[in-house]
Amino acid sequence: MSMTPSLLPRDWMFQGLIGGISAAIGHGVGVVVAAACRRWVAPRLSFWPPTDVVRTRIHLGLRVFCVVASVLMLIPAVAWQRRLADIMGTTPPTLIGYSRTLLLSAVIALGIIAIARGLRDESRWVAGLLMRRWRVPRRIALVAGAVVVAVVTYLFVAGVGVRGGYAALNWAFSVQNDTTRDGAVQPTEPEKSGSPMSKASWDSLGFEGRNFVSGGVGAAELSRLTGRPAKEPIRVYAGLESAGDTASRMRVVVDELERTGAFDRKTLVVIPTTGTGWVNPTAAQTIELVSGGDSALVAAQYSYLPSWLSFVADRPAAAAAGRALLDAVHERWATKPANHRPKLYIYGESLGTQAGEGAFDSLADIRSTVDGVLWVGPPNSNPLWRSLTERRDPGTPEAEPTYADGLVVRFANDTAGIERNHGQWLSPRILYIQHRSDPVVWWSTDLLFTRPDWLAEPPAGDRHPSMRWFPIVTFWQVSADLGNAAGVPDGHGHNYGTQVLDGWVAVTHPAGWTDADTERIRHALVELRGHDGPEK
C-alpha cells in the first residue's frame, strides 16, 4: 500500500523510507493480532494447532507470497510515479532504479523492529527483576516493566533527545545565519535596512535578512520593466541580532519605517517570515512591480531554524512573532492621518501564514485591522484556515472550499481559481492559495486513522486519480511528500511561482489594472528569476 501514489512524485529513497516504516508498523500490528488470537481464539478451534507439516507450508507460502507481491508491486508503482512525473514535469523513474526501494525498505523495517525488540527485552528484564526481588506477580510485573521502559524512553527522547537536538540544530543554523549569500551586498540606498543610514546594521540582519534587503530592483529598473514611472522601493527588516529581545526588535522595525518614509507610501505590506526569516523573493518583487515601487515591505526574523524544523519544534513562536510584528506596525500606522497613510496589507507563505494568522483573534479582527490579506500554502494546523474550511458552504469541496459565498474569504488552487468570478467580493479581501498537491496544506496527524474529505472527493487538478487513503500508510506517504514539497516545478506542491502575482492583484485590485498589466509583470518576474536569490 505504501507504493501507491500520493501527492508528489517520490524517488526510491523516499519510497524506501515510508515502505520500511509501513512494514515495521504492519509487523507490529501482526504481532499484537497474533498474540490476541493465540490467547482467545485458537483455544476454541478444533483444528488448531496445525501439524508441523502444515505449519511449515503456511510459513513458506506466506514468505514466498510476500516477496513476490512486493516485487510485482514495483510495476504499477513505477507506472504511478511516471504519471505523477508527467503531470508535474519532473524526471520519471525507471523500473530498475526504483527496485532499490525494496532493499532500503527491508533495512529500515529490520532496524525499527530491532529497536522495538530491544525495548521489549528491556521491559522483560525489569519485570524479571520485580518478580525476583519483590515477589511481584508475573502479570503485574510484565505490565509494570513495560510502563517503566515506556516512561524512561519517552523522557529520554522528549528530554535529552528532542531538547538536545533542538539546541544543537539551533546552534548549527545560527552559524549559517552569520554567512552571506554570494551576490548579496550591503545596500547604499537609504530606503533599505542594513544601509549606512539604517538603525539595523547590515551584520545584524542575518543570512535571510541580508538576502531580502539587498534584493529587488531600483526605481529605474522598475520603470523599464513596467513601462511606468517608479519610486525606489522600501524594504525594512530586523534580524535576531538587531536587538536583544522581541520588543526591542519591534522598536527597531518601527523606527526604520519612520526613517525610510514608509508611512508616506501607497502600500505598506507586513510579511511574517518563515523559520529563518526567509521572504519569498517572487512575492516581494511582485508587490514592488505592481505598485511601481510606491511600497514598503517590512519583515523580521524570529528563529534560526528553517521552516520545517520550526513547524515541528516551535510553532507557537511563529504566531507570537507574527502578532508582535503586526501589532508594532499597526500601532504606529494607526497614528497617521487616515487620508494620508498607506494601505496596510498582510502577505504570508507557508509557516509565515501561521505567523500571520497568529496576529489576529478572528476574521472580524482581520477586517478591522488591515486592508487585505494574501496567504499562500497554509499549513493544515492553521487555526483560522481549519475553522473556515470546516465551516465551508455545504456541497463545496475541502480542496477548494467556498466560505460564506466568497463574500470576504476565498480559496483557490490555481490561477483559474483566483480569476473565477464568485460574485461580489467585499473589501478588505482575504485570499488563500493552496495547491491540491501541496503536502504542507494537507499534512495532518488526523491522516493516521481518518480519511479526510479532500481524499473522499473526486480527484481534480494535479492530484493523481489513483491516490487513496489507507490507515497509517497515507500519513507516512504525505509526511514523505513534505521532504519534496518545494522540489517540484512552479504550480505544483509547495511551489507557487507567479501565482502570487494573480493573488496579489485579486486582493489589492489596483485601479485601472488590466490583464495585459498582469502578463507584463509576469514576464518581468520570469526575467528577474534568481535576482533576489534562490527560491526556498
TrEMBL record:
Residues annotated as domain Alpha/beta-hydrolase N-terminal: 3-216
Keywords of this entry: Membrane, Transmembrane, Transmembrane helix
Coiled coil: none
Record region (Disordered): 180-200
Alphabetized Pfam families for the sequence: Abhydrolase_9 (PF10081), Abhydrolase_9_N (PF15420)
Domain Alpha/beta-hydrolase catalytic as annotated: residue spans: 234-521
InterPro entries on file: Alpha/beta-hydrolase_catalytic, Alpha/beta-hydrolase_N_dom
Transmembrane segments: 12-37, 58-80, 100-119, 140-162
Keyword Membrane: yes
Full protein name: Alpha/beta-hydrolase family protein
